[in-house]
Amino acid sequence: MKKTxxxxxxxxxxxxxVASIQKILDGLNGITxxxxxxxxxxxxxxxxxxxxxxxxxxxxxxQTEIYTVKSHENENII
Length: 78
What we know:
The protein is of the alpha+beta class.
């Protein structure tokens, strides 16, 4: 089942930050689509919940110790 989320990430301040977060997301099995917005500090994520859960995504971002997920919204389930 595909689920989409928007997560607020603290610490995104430049294009390099966006690229770093995107690289983390691209490296996770189960992410089917993602984008990171510098202006809002948010990432939109679509994931296959049979392969990956949101907590694993959050942990992967938080492990950097540079970026911190502050909040998330469940947008819809496909």
